[in-house]
Amino acid sequence: MVFIYLILSIFYPIIVDDGVKYRQKDVTEMADKSELENLLKQNNYVLSRKQLTKKNYSGQQIKSYIRDNMLILIDKGIYGSPNHLEDAFYTIQLRLKKGIISLNSALYLFGLSDRVPDKIDLTFPRGYKNSKLKEQIVSHQQVPQMYNLGIEIVKTPTGNNVRVYSIDRTMAEILRPQNHIDPEIINKAYKQYLKQPNKNISKLLYFARKFKTVKKVQEYLEILL
């Protein structure tokens, strides 16, 4: 027993702090956990496997943090704090980086719809293939010149930054018949949009020309303005 204690003392030296004895191994683990808490805080309590690996956390450490309830597995390769709400918008975009939040989901983030989306609308460049999260998203595709048009950074309700199509693009795009947006949602969205002091009718019409929805946009403007 004495022999084992001596061996442990060689590999894990004892540190005394304020009269309390700690082994070097324990001190290192405490420092790692403290750094993890800071990292979670800096990233609104959601981290990807890539972010953790970049900070030199091993797969074994991540498993132990999940076991100790310091991390929870939100989705494949996405981890969060058990003490904070999950942010579906943010975590899905972490996994599907080419997906831009659009249509019904964009309306919700802009406060133009009070319907919480059952599935998140994501728009991808045409030809993009990914079978992930088929049950959690509604996938849309656009040609490259339209896919890259009007992307903005918007905060989710929990404070994370996500890429969303601009409010003006969204208002023009929801009128396309192929998007099958509920007319009631469209009516409410236009009423709210036109009340906003920062509405930009010229931008709205610019996107309406791109999506060939000018006539429908003008009808809403004539009725509601």
Tell me what the structure shows.
With 225 residues, the protein is an alpha+beta fold. Helices cover 47% and strands 19% of the residues. Helix 8 packs across helix 10 (201-211) and helix 10 runs antiparallel to helix 11 (214-224). The chain is elongated.
What are its keywords?
225 residues; alpha+beta; three-stranded antiparallel β-sheet; three-stranded mixed β-sheet; 11 helices; 10 strands; elongated; disordered N terminus
Write the layout of secondary structure elements.
Layout: H1 2-11, E1 14-17, E2 20-23, H2 24-42, E3 46-48, H3 49-54, H4 59-67, E4 72-75, E5 78-80, H5 88-95, E6 100-101, H6 103-109, E7 120-125, E8 137-142, H7 144-147, E9 151-155, E10 161-165, H8 167-173, H9 183-195, H10 201-211, H11 214-224
Parallel strand pairs: 7-8
Antiparallel strand pairs: 1-2, 3-5, 4-5, 6-7, 9-10
